[in-house]
Write a structure and sequence with these properties.
The structure is a homodimer of 813-residue chains. Chain A has 813 residues and is α+β, with helices and mostly antiparallel strands. The first copy, chain A, contains 22 helices and 34 strands. In chain A, α9 runs antiparallel to α15 and α15 packs antiparallel against α16. Chain A is globular. Chains A, B: Removes N-terminal dipeptides sequentially from polypeptides having unsubstituted N-termini provided that the penultimate residue is proline.
Chain lengths: 813, 813
């Protein structure tokens, strides 16, 4: 175990005393005790479930102070408290086990190996003040199961025993789990938007699920976590699968154009809106409709136990809302901001879809944060770019910043990894959950069929070009409007929402006067708030306590600007100053010094062709968005049908480690023997090694508690593969040879003529130890992402005029 | 979807009216309404979360009555209710979706295809009485997510709206989810056993976790589900792994003996017990120690919402209890029965480990059922064989009936699938969770080391023989004592606790005057209470309502005696009258008519030898307790290192389907060229086919609700493989050639001398469609289960005097 805690706020003694008093560890009965008696008293206060003194004493006998005496025996006689004794007890309170995790003879070494924060301001013998200081630090230290000891105690009922806690309790700058989640109020409202996407002459009402602490009924005003999730109301999986596009066809030749950006620029036209509903003059304080628990984002649940409200809304075209799905256009953005405006007191909602009785968010303090991953993260970015008032911050995970970068690339249809054949229309159909209410669907079906046909047409799979449809779905255009502080989280192995999405947003935010924090992990399309090695949840608590509750806790300073998980050493996080602003090194593709096998021909060729049987064999089994057998043949197998379909450039083994920091650029001079051309480039880490597993491993099931008798999550961490693997994809990129200038300008492609092609691979942050080799594969059809005509096009590469350029964290010279 | 519901109790109209009244679907306000108004009123009562009449009317508009009118419009004018209209609404209430699941033009066909119970007592037009009868049936019908509609409504708060329900509510013979699980009381007691396994001069106190409804405080006496689970207090995984035995060594030659059973029979000697604790004269009604939620067996949680108490206890040697682990001996049995006796008012417990204040189970009605799987199921069988008063029934899943059948077979060490090298000592160490309390461990360590060494010695891995150690752990000896009605659940592909365990218990129970119900599923070591296709949970409700609450609900008649999941058709359950009493057919191993490739030699040979590299390659990746590459080479690959290590006998393709019902018997005449010999026989279903997947697939995550705002489970079902597989293991068996008579009598083995060997494979129930082939593989070292010396022994088989005999469900002639 390696622990990284960034959310600890250094605290002076008077404040320590004040906070230990607020949290009821300290009071008149124990504040004057000598060190040993004080420590005994503090430990007994943690024994929440032992409700008699006799049972607490028995529990003390279960703890060892050193390798020969238990705590009951130790505390029986007045003794000095040695530092090692304190940390032996501390390790046990943190659920570490003697023998398996540490030795009673030397707790300090283990403590330091685990990177737990240590109190070192004392001599080896603790005075009472040392006990207080060390105890305070201990309450803020992570247990074996990745939560602070205080959170662990809260989960065991520490705060539940004090029934008079009815408002947020701040400890070390973070809000604590003192709210009774059994009493949460769950109600439904219908927010009136400035949209009429289903053109029924009435503004679209958007259903929202509100979960708020019971204490709001007694007047507490609370901050809100809002998750805009089109999936929450159900998905039409069968209909979505039926709509999924066939990709086993050649790319089309495109007529050249002379487009500039203005030709493809989109300007949102809200059109003439129907009048607002006037209601019947009544305003209710409580909803007519309620709902049951049923959502699982543990970060939201964590904050529900800490006195925040949580709101979910699925947006236009979802079950119980009006309107039609659009897959990411401004109407969906306004679906999200409408909810925020209602939460900020600036918009009307009703108690049912008749729209007669109004209801306000009277319990809201008007400070809203957004949370969620993937589409849910995307809508955060979308909402933030409107500059909507009330939205203080986003915790945007695995978010799309431009839908073109999700479904397209450089003039090509390029699928999200694992979702071959999906497109904007498929996603629209999947999330059009109005379909699940038979009556509602009956009334809207004709309009929906029209809308879906329009999306299918405008997304234009034939050309793969950037156009007005995609420009309307490019949030990067409006980053300058962002007023919310942004937390960006993304997986460096996320081939679904690829890393370019977060990279472009991160870079664009540099010129916007908000605070941005970037977290890059080694996972795919996952959450990271259940990792053992990083106090991500604590940091988000620090962050939201600052942004929403206004606590002066130095969140902006304590949370590192850039936190990146190491891909070589498990449970390790790096803190570079920035991402992607680095040195670089260029390798020519005919460089005999750099490459292991420079080609004997100056212009080697490959033939993009597979039989139907080969294609079907390779695409039979998909795992994690990749076809393993194909990848293995592509990179590791010289005797396979793939051999002749690609060119491989392999560097000599590295004589020192390197860290690739940002976007690898590929400059190629290539010819196609047809009037179409599709180029893929894959960069690979080559060499037998135990790398991180693709997904984090469960270290302890259901070990993380969001609160007392509340939802649980499993503790996870990336671990090393059990057996060495020969290689791993680092990054990838694709280009239509007719889009040599950009994604909307189409150039002619003359067969057998050489063209200069230049494109960037997905940005990364990747360390290769010494001895590894870098492999660049140049090929055409990418079975997992591009259309796969595999139609017999021959490509030639001029290696004398081709190279790739690697951005490096450290100066290569 | 195919629905099998056995727990429905046929009910007459007066009782229907009474039960609909009790559950508040019927009262003075609606009992006189005509059919359409009654139906509208009933549907509106299901709309629990719509709390105003306006919102309920809006919700009605979301339901379609037929393909052109919604329910709001339909009910506006007085209309007759057609049968198809009722079932259109019914399908929607059961969460089936128009278009994806059914068509509004023909709901009846879908209803019948899904095998949902239909009300067919009416003409096509429903009168009010028909509505009542059909509604009652509908409330008992499973939704798309595998629960009755009434359970689904309960999960949505149907009963929670009636706050005055404070005692069990019976509907259709089953107890309903009317209890508020937010208010469960969780407390800890220490039961004094009649044991002193740690020889400290004090009877072992056994900690138990009690969860009981708050209503017990007001005088409600409740039945108890008790789960004896040695794992609940944590496991010592690292220490267990360290103790795991090396299996890469040859089997040992054994000195012949003349043992009869009396030589290995064990007689439990409780020894002289210390006096009982007298206490301090005080008796408490409430505990001193409490605990948090944290266990996950969903069947127990389901009953917590229905007014049962649940008790967990881990037994001797576990954390917070006294004593030492023994792996299955009578002390562990008495650990379990001690808790039952306390629950039945016949034994003393204390509020803490000092043993001064007594506490009774004053809230118990003294009726106890046991639940749980694996070790947890095993301890049910163990407890039942004592005939302990209070134990009314067991729901024993994947249980061991004799520990020799778990760790040994016919004179050989044979591992549970997936746990090579595990043995009784390893399991004892893993479950000795006193080790996790540093103080407690410090005081007990020396005694534990002694105990563990004794187990290691007595289990006798060297011989693999049945002895007194194993006889003390054979519950089959005392089946005649069983007084509890028994539900036995086992996986036909459970290679961890192998099917012989349940088979032997099932057969032995036939002569015991209790009711036994047998469920055999196609899974491995799993629970089945989350399957879509079978109402297992409902049946258990019917069962426990009968056995514990005394409800006269025909449980004994309605639950089939034997329910077996089909291995060919997903979601299908067969109801044979019995298991393993069947016809049979013998195939000689030189039968040229039956076998595809009879051997040209009369005495073919195989050499049990693999290099270290081959062994290490084959055992590198284990999945589901099997080494796939080895299995594939064993059965399907004539060009592998395995080729010469086994003999294969393959039948001609079957000209009609057969169902193997029970134990395949193998009769072999064999010689070994050493003075040791190890024979394995594997029976295989051969032929390309899409078989059931190894594990059930998740159909809908977290879709099953144990109650209102309570724990959830995922809906699962076995689905077919995406791609055909060439073969599948049906069953397996192993024999030490020195144990030709039985598992304790050792015979001499002369090298190169032929001996008659006869042994049974694990019992099964397996259908082979026409066209498939049966394969019998005769080999020696079983990489997944036996020790693996692979030491170069050559075996000869006399095919003219060898055969296998297949038990068949239907007469083969």
């Amino acid at each position: 175990m390696k622990n990284h805690q960034f959310a600890f706020v250094p605290t002076e003694l008077p404040q320590i005393v004040a906070e230990l008093t607020t949290t009821r560890f300290l009071d008149a009965s124990n504040e004057q005790l000598p060190a040993d008696e004080l420590l005994k008293d503090l430990i007994k206060r943690t024994l929440v479930n032992y409700r008699s003194d006799a049972s607490k004493e028995i529990a003390l006998a279960d703890l060892m102070v050193d390798d020969h005496q238990d705590a009951r025996a130790f505390f029986k006689e007045h003794q000095s408290v040695e530092r090692t004794q304190f940390y032996n007890l501390a390790l046990q309170l943190l659920h570490f086990q003697t023998n398996e995790d540490f030795k009673l003879s030397d707790p300090i070494t283990t403590w330091q190996q685990f990177q737990l924060p240590i109190y070192d301001g004392a001599k080896t013998t603790f005075e009472a003040e040392d006990v207080l200081r060390a105890w305070y630090l201990l309450l803020n230290t992570h247990t074996k199961f990745g939560q602070t000891l205080l959170d662990d105690l809260a989960a065991n009922g520490y705060f539940a025993q004090f029934s008079d806690l009815k408002q947020p309790l701040i400890f070390n700058g973070k809000t604590q789990a003192v709210f009774n989640t059994d009493h949460l109020i769950r109600e439904v409202v219908y927010v009136e938007s400035d949209l009429d996407t289903d053109h029924d002459g009435k503004r679209d009402l958007l259903m929202a699920h509100v979960i708020r602490p019971a204490e709001t009924e007694a007047g507490l005003k609370v901050s809100v976590l809002f998750t805009a999730s089109p999936y929450d109301q159900g998905t039409n999986d069968i209909a979505g699968a039926q709509l999924t596009h066939n990709v086993d066809h050649p790319i089309a030749h495109k007529e050249p154009n002379q487009f500039s950006y203005s030709d493809v620029e989109s300007h949102y036209q809200p059109g003439n809106l129907p009048a607002k509903r006037t209601g019947n003059g009544k305003t209710a304080t409580h909803a007519e409709e309620h709902f049951q628990n049923g959502w699982g984002y543990t970060l939201n649940n964590y904050f529900l136990a800490r006195g925040f409200a949580v709101v979910y809304s699925a947006g236009v075209g979802t079950k119980d809302s009006d309107g039609l799905r659009t897959t990411g256009d401004p109407a969906e953005t306004l679906s999200a901001t409408a909810i925020i405006e209602w939460l900020a007191g600036k918009r009307t909602a009703f108690t049912n879809r008749n729209g007669d009785v109004k209801i306000t968010a009277w319990w809201s303090n008007h400070n809203v944060a957004m949370t969620g991953r993937s589409y849910l993260g995307t809508l955060q970015t979308a909402a933030a770019t409107t500059g909507v008032a009330g939205l203080k911050t986003c915790i945007s995970e695995a978010a799309i910043s431009s839908w073109y970068d999700y479904y397209r690339e450089n003039g090509l249809v390029v699928a999200p990894g694992g979702f071959q054949g999906e497109d904007a229309d498929v996603l629209a159909e999947e999330t059009f959950s109005r379909e699940q209410r038979a009556g509602d669907y009956h009334r809207i079906k004709a309009k929906w069929d029209q809308q879906l046909a329009a999306i299918t047409s405008h997304q234009d799979r034939r050309s793969g070009n950037y156009n007005q449809f995609w420009d309307a779905r490019n949030y990067l255009k409006a980053v300058a409007n962002i007023k919310a502080d942004m937390v960006l989280v993304h997986g460096l192995n996320d081939w679904n929402v690829k890393p370019r999405n977060v990279y472009n947003l991160y870079q664009a935010l540099k010129s916007v006067p908000v605070t941005t924090k970037l977290f890059l992990h080694q996972g795919q399309h996952i959450y990271i708030n259940n990792f053992q090695s990083l106090d991500f949840t604590d940091m988000m608590n620090l962050w939201l306590s600052n942004k929403l509750l206004g606590i002066d806790n130095h969140a902006n300073d304590l949370i590192p600007p850039v936190t990146i998980q190491d891909n070589v050493n498990p449970g390790t996080w790096q803190l570079p100053a920035d991402w992607g602003t680095s040195h670089s090194k260029t390798i020519q593709l005919n460089d005999a010094k750099a490459l292991q096998q420079p080609f004997d021909q100056a212009t080697p060729a490959f033939l993009d062709q597979l039989s139907h049987e080969q294609l079907s064999q390779y695409t039979k089994h998909e795992s994690s968005g990749q076809y393993d057998e194909w990848f293995n043949d592509l990179v590791n197998n010289p005797n396979s049908p793939i051999e002749s379909t690609r060119l491989i450039f392999k560097t000599k083994p590295l004589d020192h480690p390197i860290t690739i920091d940002g976007k690898v650029k590929v400059d190629l001079t290539m010819a196609s023997d047809h009037n179409v051309g599709l180029v893929s480039a894959m960069l690979i880490d080559y060499g037998d090694a135990k790398r991180l597993n693709v997904s984090p491993s469960v270290l302890a099931p259901n070990a993380i508690n969001a609160g007392y008798q509340w939802t649980k999550d499993s503790l996870k961490e990336f671990t090393l593969q059990a057996n060495p693997s020969p290689s791993k994809m680092i990054s990838i990129g694709h280009l239509n040879m007719q889009n040599r200038q950009n994604s909307y300008r189409v150039n002619e492609l003359e067969p057998n003529q050489y063209y200069d092609l230049s494109f960037e691979l997905q940005p990364t942050f990747y360390t290769l130890p010494a001895g590894r080799q870098l492999v660049l594969v140049i090929y055409a059809t990418d079975l997992a992402m591009t259309v796969r005509g595999t139609m017999g096009v021959t490509y030639h590469l001029n290696t004398t005029q081709s190279s790739f350029t690697i951005p490096l964290l450290h100066n290569p010279d």
